[in-house]
Amino acid sequence: xxxxxxxxxxxxPNSIAKEPTFTxxxxxxxxxxxxxxxIPIPHRTIPEPKGQDLDFVNVVNSHLIHSxxxxxxxxANGLTAFRVKHILLKIQKDYVLSLEFFNxxxxxxxxxxxxxxxxxxxxxxxxxxxxxxxxxxxxxILVPGSIDLPPKLFEAILYSSRLCDSSxxxxxxxxxxxxxxxx
Length: 183
Fold this sequence. Notes:
Layout: H1 52-65, H2 69-75, H3 81-91, H4 95-108, H5 115-127, H6 131-141, H7 149-160, H8 169-181
Helix pairs in contact: 1-3, 3-5, 4-5, 5-6, 5-7, 6-8
């Protein structure tokens, strides 16, 4: 015997609704045909490395992949912010290597770190949910009393988010760190 689901019985011939009223919301605007244009996220690109810059980035990348830190030490003087950015972009799929390289640059050529290189490592770490490491880096660069740094850092993170194929988690981490450091 085939059992049918429970049905409401009524004496009136048209009292059972053919289509439940809760399936389609009653909205005056037709949402299906509305043109949704999300707010565009501003972004910047950086020029591709050419010539000596390209060679340097490729050599450093090779040494990083093979964990040849001794050879990297001899290349430290040739680091620039431009080269560091491209190296980070090249190794961004490996967050451990990215963080090791970022820290290595900080000890061997700290002048090569800029807000852009900091924002790139923040994107990489938060993309892989390494929030403690990202917050640690944020705390190091957020100096109490520096009025213009938080907006500049936010802008650097915003403009590099598309370049680093980032997620909104980086902003969650940034705001949480701001809130806890009371800047």
